[in-house]
Amino acid sequence: MTTKLLSLRGIRKAYGAVEAVRGVDLDIQAGEVLALCGDNGAGKSSLVKIIAGAQPPSGGTMQWRGREVAFHSPQDALREGIATIYQDLALAPRLSIAQNVFLGSELTRGPLGLPFPQLLDKRRMVAEARGYLQRLNLPQADMGAAVERLSGGQRQAVAIARALRWQAELIIMDEPTAALGVRETAQVLSLIRTLHEEGRTVLLISHNMADVCAVATRVAIMKAGSKAIDRPVAGLDPDRLAHMVMTGQDMPAAA
Amino acid sequence: MSGVLARFGTAFAGLLVLLFFAAFAENFASLGNLAIVLKETAFLAILAIGFALALTTAELDLSIADVASLAAVATGALIQGGAAPAVAVLVGLGVGLGAGVLNGLTVTVLKVPSLIATLGMAAMAKGLGFMITQGVAFVGRWPREFTGLGRGSLLGVSNLIWWMAGIGFLAWLLLKWTRTGLHMVATGEADEAARLAGIRTGRMKRLGLALAGLLAGVTAVLLAASLSSATPNMAADHFLYAIAAVLLGMTMIEPGRPNIPGTLLAAFMLKALGNGLVLLGAPYYAQDIALGAIIIGSVALSATVMRRAAFTKKLNFRTAG
């Protein structure tokens, strides 16, 4: 029995005369890894920005856990439990791993148990940040290390750890492997699998068909602002998926 | 080892310079002389801490010295006119804070780059200072209650040194141990990332510039109290020194980032350098030349430190399973 986490009905987005999204219905089930594919200009970025609260839709409704919602900022979405990991990761490169995991939601405590002044609880933040990274199968010795010293895959892990810290139920990942090498891509895919095993819901935007086939459970393909295809990934291979993205037509399995 | 060099290299170099003066400049290493140097560091250090706090949020405040002069003149005018010292001090601090708040609003609301906004503020403050004084200095036998702020001492240590230590401690506490301070650092380091994490970056920038203004006001009050006078360009000499202290401070302790211990250490080193040059009989312009070289050199050096930090080997993440 699956439960609907997010449900979009008739979502539209117009920029002046240009209609980027034309009445999309999309359901995201709790615990699935849904890949959102489509060529450049198909409208997937616009759709994702709407879900993430980065821009309002021109029309349509959005239900989160059965309740109608309207996000006016990424913070609104975050409060509801929708965290977006942007392509450029939105990390502060010269701050430490622990500082990045807790950025904007730091833990504090009063010295000697006093209520004032509230000082940063660095020890607890380091310990908890380590815990989050351990859950992502990435134990790391030095939580005080600057994020700029990490590899792309490790940074992705820090960004995901932050989403975990926010207790996000839906984690949106925008092209998480676009700038990564082979080994780091494998690392990020394994992160997504870990999230899936933990029962988190992931919305993965990707151009990489092999990645989609490797980790997604379902795929939605956008074509010219509309949803053309919505189906399970099982039984698909990257070539067939690529063909579907190009044509917008579902294709029977090769005999 | 290279970490130690990056964090303390400049401090070691400074120590060598001090040792050189100790060896060749008569009286330099005497306790009395060093106490005077430390005391005189206070004005420059407090002004520099303000500059460092604004710079932490990636904003420049080039108006600190002229705002300090204006605040000193405002305070002096009131004292001269017989106002209660407490009122005069509050007005001095208020002028500084007010200028800082205006700078913050100009930068974050009107979107004028701080380089330009504070340069404009500097010119206006200077003009207002001359307007209030009509070009002459306020000098007089001012009440001890007021002059004691700068001239008095506590436990045998000059009040100026206590002010410097107290303000330095509070600024350090703010940046290193409070959420607000960390949000200021994050704003300066990665504006967009901080904003996406829900940090109100505009507010952090306004705070940084307001504190720079407030500390210019504090410097003004202490200067006027110590000298029993106020002139419309009394803080001008401290301007380049304050900037140099912050930039030189960025080459140590926390390389590449404005930091309070580095700023304090650098401020003392700069004052000691000036003092040593005077004791050696160097011409008056030697200080300016040295100061300019230090400003350029420290930025070049801290950029190198940053480059090195970026290219050190990747840390070792182990992938389990």
UniProtKB/TrEMBL annotation, chain A:
**One Pfam family for this entry, by name?**
ABC_tran
Query: Mind giving the lineage of the organism this protein is from?
Result: Bacteria, Pseudomonadati, Pseudomonadota, Alphaproteobacteria, Acetobacterales
Keywords linked to the UniProt accession: ATP-binding, Nucleotide-binding
Gene3D superfamilies with a match to the protein in the record: P-loop containing nucleotide triphosphate hydrolases
Q: Which residues form the ABC transporter domain?
A: 6-249
Superkingdom is Bacteria
Quote the PANTHER family the UniProt record gives: CARBOHYDRATE TRANSPORT ATP-BINDING PROTEIN MG119-RELATED, SUGAR ABC TRANSPORTER ATP-BINDING PROTEIN
**Name of the molecule in the record:** Sugar ABC transporter ATP-binding protein
Which CDD domains does the protein's record reference? ABC_Carb_Monos_I
> Per the record's keyword annotation, is Transmembrane helix included, yes or no?
no
The source organism is Teichococcus aerophilus
Q: Which GO terms describe its molecular function?
A: ATP binding
From TrEMBL, chain B:
Transmembrane portions of the chain: 35-55, 62-80, 86-110, 122-142, 154-175, 207-227, 239-256, 263-283, 289-306
What kind of membrane protein is this, topologically? Answer: Multi-pass membrane protein
Q: Where in the cell does this protein reside? A: Cell membrane
Q: Name the domain of life.
A: Bacteria
Keyword Transport (UniProt): yes
Keywords per UniProt = Cell inner membrane, Cell membrane, Membrane, Transmembrane, Transmembrane helix, Transport
What InterPro entries does the record tag this protein with?
ABC_transp_permease
Question: What name does the UniProt record give this protein?
Answer: ABC transporter permease
